[in-house]
Design a protein that fits this description.
It comes from Thermococcus argininiproducens. Keywords: Membrane, Transmembrane, Transmembrane helix. The protein is mainly alpha-helical and 234 residues long. The chain contains eight helices and no strands. It has one domain. Helix 2 runs antiparallel to helix 3, helix 4 runs antiparallel to helix 5 and helix 5 runs antiparallel to helix 7. The radius of gyration is 18 Å and the shape is globular. The two termini are 27 Å apart.
Length: 234
């Protein structure tokens, strides 16, 4: 089965199970929440909400999707059917990417009433969504219970939000420079570029950093998904 057909199948299942409609409703809620803030705060809250949507919410949603497909035997069937399990990973990532781009656009349009700077936001969303979707696949593959996965979600959430605290001057010790290696940090520069001047050099380095993270996350997802989800090892 091709990646395109897998995407359409996953979309039908996700819509039937209200996964993707809920995902977009969350984006709508974020956009409405932004309107409650004065315009001077948009450069702070919008990058945070946009990251939550393609990043952390996507990370959680792809994990719950994999849990559901483990229980109904969809993933287990990959080991005995002609479906290429790598195509499954690509299909999941592609669908979450498209939904994330729509969600980011909704947040910008509803929250600001404008699409100015949207190109930066979409580039950042594109890269961040790939990284966190692949990480979600990689990490959730080992778990069979949402309660266990919740611990991983909290860990990823805390680590991913620390760069925002560092960027805004709350973590000043030099040791916190290690946070530049967290994928949410380069994503933050793209989201901030819609509201303030960010040099081309920084954006280029941020883009390269996220591409490297994408490669690492894919490698991580490929190994763990096959080992724990397809083969069913624990």
């Amino acid at each position: 089965m091709s990646v395109g057909r897998l995407v359409m199948l996953d979309l039908k299942v996700g819509v039937r199970g209200y996964v993707y409609p809920i995902y977009l409703l969350v984006a709508l809620a974020y956009g409405l929440m932004v309107k409650a803030f004065p315009e001077s705060y948009h450069s702070v809250v919008i990058p945070l909400f946009i990251f939550f949507e393609p990043g952390l919410v996507g990370f959680m949603f792809v994990g719950t999707s994999i849990f559901a497909e483990k229980k109904d035997g969809t993933i287990g069937a990959l080991s005995v059917t002609p479906i290429e399990w790598r195509s499954y990973i690509f299909a999941k990532t592609l669908l979450m990417l498209v939904v994330s781009l729509i969600a980011a656009t909704l947040i910008m349009l509803i929250g600001t009433g404008s699409l100015e700077g949207l190109s930066y936001v979409l580039i950042g969303t594109f890269l961040v969504s790939i990284v966190y979707t692949l990480l979600g696949i990689a990490i959730s593959s080992k778990y069979y219970d949402l309660d266990d996965y919740f611990v991983a979600i909290l860990g990823v959430m805390v680590l991913s939000l620390l760069p925002y605290a560092h960027y805004h001057g709350y973590l000043t010790n030099k040791i916190w420079k290690v946070l530049y290696a967290v994928p949410s940090y380069p994503g933050l520069y793209f989201f901030k570029a819609a509201f303030e001047e960010i040099s081309t050099d920084i954006l280029m380095r941020s883009g390269i950093g996220l591409i490297i993270w994408s490669v690492v996350a894919y490698y991580f997802a490929r190994i763990r998904f096959y080992k724990y989800a397809v083969e069913g090892l624990r």
